[in-house]
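Data availability (excerpt). All sequences and predicted token strings are deposited with the supplementary files. A representative entry, 5'-nucleotidase SurE, is shown inline so that the format can be inspected without opening the archive.
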Amino acid sequence: MRILITNDDGINAPGLEIIAKIAAELAGSKGEVWTVAPAFEQSGVAHKISYTHPMMLAQMGERRFAAEGSPADCVLAGLHEVLKGHKPDLILSGVNRGNNSAENAMYSGTLGAAMEGALQGIPSFALSQYYGPKNYELENPFEAAEVHGAALIRKLIDATPAEEAITDYRLFFNVNFPPLPAAEVKGARVGPQGYRKHTHFGVEPHLSPSGRKFLWIRGGDQQIPTEEGSDAALNLDGYISVTPMRATLTAYDALDHFGAAL
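Structure token line:
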């Protein structure tokens, strides 16, 4: 098996080391793991591509490259330059430092890479590690992802219908590991993307020494559960959440309503 890995935390992020271990376990002794990751942190860039300017690509080691671009850029660089037609069997993105459950999914560069992989016709997974009081200070806060990641991905690959290979907007998977040591993880559950009520991103203003105002983006409370059975609620209850996704923003539930209105 040939696997391409990337992330949005950057080429030197500890979560990339974890996903490299997961990929190596999946690929086996005769497989290949290729890394194309952002040269610098690209958190929050979603599915951005560098359409209006070029990006530098640098080889950092054997099968290891850094690109001055977004995670989606890295997927494009990996598929069409680094691998040059030697299509990977699988794309893994992560392991993200922090969760990409609920509304976080809409901002995530980790998911942006998996989405691009799906648009390119390749099975793709975004993996993220929820942080909380029980794992934040562990020697390896990614322990849950490292221990449970490979087996979970195998199950999902085996369960994916064959017709997905010819679907226009094919599936990709948003996987979030709970904020727990690996031994305390209760299992995995499939659930929809949730919504954290009464919390959202905002800004925090600061003045520079010269008196100019700068704004920092601030996230909301990540310990607020979503609706029962949805991703963040599952994570905070001790489960790995798996959310199958597609790269279409069509509100199918609203088509008939607005069609009748017109």
